[in-house]
Amino acid sequence: MTSMKNYLIAAALMALASLGQFVSLALFNSLVLSFFLYTLLAGLFLPFWYIRLLRKLPLRQIPAYLKLLPESPRQVRFALILGTSMAMVMYLAFILVGDYFLKDGAALPVVAQWGIHRSWTSFLFLFALLLNGATEELFWRGLIHEILHDEKRRVLAVLFPALVFGAQHIFVIWRLVPNVLTTLLFMIGIIGSGLLWGYLREKTGSLFVCVLCHVIVAFGYLSILAFYLFR
Q1: Residue 94 and residue 182 in contact, taking contact as beta carbons nearer than 8 Å
Q2: Farthest CA pair distance, the chain
Q3: Cys-Cys crosslink for 161: which of 64, 112, 144, 216, Cβ 3.0 to 4.6 Å?
Q4: Angstrom distance (rounded) from CA 80 to CA 220
Q5: Dist. CA 217–CA 212, nearest whole Å
Q6: Structure pTM?
Q7: Residue 2 — left, alpha, or beta (φ > 0 → left; ψ -120 to 50 → alpha)?
Q8: Full residue range of the structural domain in which residue 164 is found
Q9: H or E element: which one contains 85?
Q10: What total of structural domains would you count in the chain?
Q11: What's the pLDDT tens digit per position in 66-108?
Q12: Which run of H or E residues covers position 140?
């Protein structure tokens, strides 16, 4: 494929993934629907559809195509340390200033409006967040990164997905914590994480590092959200 065609395909897939998340929350007010449209459709189905049907690769080659397996125990240790460090930073931030950012009390009513209560849906919410980290990496740093493979412009394979990855979170963050400064800080953190994981994907040649790190980070903000929303 030509470079331009790759960029157009990547842009279309990213727009589809972001639209699924936005529509499910903005129009249908449903985190359950968002779980199916974003986590499962974008995170799992789109990579499988693209690799299996468009690239026509056999199933056994999908992990290699996405660089899903670690190349050494050192990569595993690095991902564990990095992910834990990022989670610790989040814990510290919420211990120090979490009550200030959540003082308007908007988060809990919004989550309830989205269909998450003290019921079985809470378990789906928690499960979705745990699965979300891995599937996001399969899509953003896996599928999209590979589509944007261009030796002359490798920086775009890191930059482009990170910016869209961050932008799609604006609506969610703004609804939960409707504060300009808070939203800006979250966007810096999310885009920065996307850039970091994209860089690691590029430098290590392994998506595994990004997946494991993101899963640990997801567990970090999952536990924070569970504490503030369901206590």
Answers
A1: no
A2: 52
A3: 144
A4: 13
A5: 9
A6: 0.90
A7: beta
A8: 3-230
A9: helix 73-101
A10: 1
A11: 888 888 899 999 999 999 999 999 899 888 877 777 777 777 7
A12: none
